[in-house]
Amino acid sequence: MKPISKTFIKGLIAIIPITLTLYLLFWLAGTAELVLGNIFKLFFPDSWYIKGFGFILGLVVAYFFGGFLETRTFLRLFNSFEKLVIQIPYFKSIYTTIRDFSSLFSSENKGKFKQVVLVNVPSGNGQQIGFITVSDFEGLSHTFIADDQIAVYLPFSYEMGGNTVIMSRENVVEIDMSVEDAMRFIATAGVIGNITAG
């Protein structure tokens, strides 16, 4: 009976990520179709509407919104709007958590993770994987940070968010692991993924 359950669990582990990914994509597509499709119908005759047009319109909107965010004027307006929105009670914690977690997987933020490191946990009996985000504070107006200190981001496992810790460089050990492998290892608490570290 044990080999059967082991095979079943292995199949389940393989299916769940695919299923959840497809579900999320279909949910996003359905939401875009519903919202943007209805907006399209407000301005144009129903006969012009073709099923799936809302989803396509959503892709176009996302692309152009990303393009606008590359301009200083639009980015400044968006940041001002964001500052006003996150002042809404309870909305701030939910929005910022989702925003920060999502940004971890962007190519821009992966570039900001300069090095995967091991950090001693407070009890001194173990180590935690983290990412160096700032290795040189020269030129920044952080007077409380010493010259030999760096910023290390410590993500949570099975949870969104993490902690940023300012520590001495001598308290971290650089390891030969890619950012993608380290993020996958942390996200699954080391349960899933083949990791090679030197």
What does this molecule look like?
Helices cover 51% and strands 16% of the residues. By secondary structure, it is of the alpha+beta class. It has 2 domains: 84 residues, no CATH class; 81 residues, SH3 type barrels (Roll), CATH 2.30.30. Strands 4-3-2-1-5 form a 5-stranded antiparallel β-sheet, with helices on one face. β1 and β2 form a beta hairpin. α1 crosses α2. The longest helix is centred in the first third of the chain and has 42 residues. The two termini are 38 Å apart.
Count every beta strand, where a strand is a DSSP E run of 2 or more residues: 5
Rough outline: flat
Integer count of domains = 2
Q: Mind telling me the C-alpha Rg?
A: 22 Å
Major sheet strand order? 4-3-2-1-5
**Are there runs of 5+ residues with pLDDT below 50, and where?**
none
Tell me the distance between the termini: 38 Å
Percent helix among the residues?
40-55%
Query: Secondary-structure element sequence?
Result: HHHHHEEEEEH
Structural classification? alpha+beta
